[in-house]
Design goal:
Helix content is 13%, strand content 54%. It has 299 residues and is mainly beta.
């Protein structure tokens, strides 16, 4: 079955989470790779090898850091505290023309080594989402943070006429590097990516399960560091990262969306600001600005 146009657009927006993450867990345990498909099983074997290699290096790095200094860590990045739980951030949000609020909450380590979960939610006067995001230190494209999958509730306008509620599970193959390691951040320059999202979704009022794919290609570009002022007047150093992408959706016909994202990250806080637009039309897909935080501190 194919993605509907409205659902496809929402999932394109969700595909670049502010990791790119409320109480929505419906008994489903997030794993790096699901056990339900042959293709995913083979990916799991690949991930296990990559994780084993990365973990060995990470352990060595950790030992070196303990002896020398604690400024850098291989996994996770100190620019996103996903290894900690109990913290939260609140954002002022605009999502596809509607104003609202959003939260990102730390859930801490996941079941596999060097994987972590956080909850990412946006609620507006119309559309929104509430998903758990699985990230980790894959290492397949260099050291840093990768997004593997996410799942949760989405609300979207279908054909711009009616709101529909869905439960969606989205898996990225391969995992996407969205944030360099501490040692590389600011020195990575640029990196390219190609990945496919496998999307499974179910309407809240129906037992019908549908699926589809969205293909992504694009490039991240580092724009260095700059001082910014937070909502409370505090001046902090931020890392500016841009992401230009093309998303291709296989529907009744093939159609594409070109997007552009600017993100500001603060060490110890993670993402504090994001500006996401449709590069073809100039339409604002999403903006979010940090409005409050608790349980974490800028470094």
């Amino acid at each position: 079955m194919t993605l509907t146009h409205g659902t496809g657009l929402l999932l394109i927006g969700l595909s670049i989470p502010g990791c790119a993450g409320d109480n929505f867990n419906q008994g489903l345990d997030l794993e790096k790779t699901p056990d339900t498909a042959t293709t995913d099983t083979s990916e799991a074997d690949t991930d296990t090898d990559a994780d084993a290699d990365t973990d060995t290096d990470a352990d060595a790095d950790a030992d070196s850091d303990t002896d020398a200094d604690t400024d850098f860590q291989a996994c996770p990045s100190s620019w996103q505290p996903v290894d900690q739980s109990g913290w939260s951030k609140v954002f002022d949000v605009e999502w596809r023309g509607a104003s609202g609020s959003g939260t990102i909450e730390g859930l801490g380590p996941a079941s596999e080594a060097d994987t972590f979960k956080y909850r990412d939610s946006i609620s507006t006067t119309s559309e929104g989402f509430d998903v758990d995001v699985l990230v980790g230190c894959d290492g397949s494209s260099g050291e840093g943070m990768y997004v593997y999958q996410w799942e949760g509730d989405v609300t979207v306008f279908m054909y711009s006429t009616m709101l529909m509620d869905y439960y969606a599970s989205v898996v990225s193959s391969p995992a996407r590097l969205y944030l360099p390691s501490d040692a590389e951040i600011g020195n990575r320059g640029t990196w390219d990516y190609n990945y496919t999202l496998t999307v499974t979704y179910q309407e809240a009022t129906s037992a019908k399960i549908q699926s589809g794919h969205v293909d992504f290609s694009g490039s991240y570009v580092e724009l260095g560091f700059t001082d910014i002022q937070l909502f409370d007047g505090t001046t902090v150093e931020a890392y500016l990262l841009t992401n230009s992408y093309t998303a291709t959706v296989q529907e009744y016909t093939t159609w594409t969306v070109n997007g552009y994202i600017e993100q500001w990250w603060v060490r110890g806080l993670g993402l504090v600001s994001e500006y996401h637009t449709n590069a073809d039309t100039g339409e604002v897909i999403m903006t979010r600005e940090l409005a409050a935080y608790s349980g974490i501190t800028p470094e």
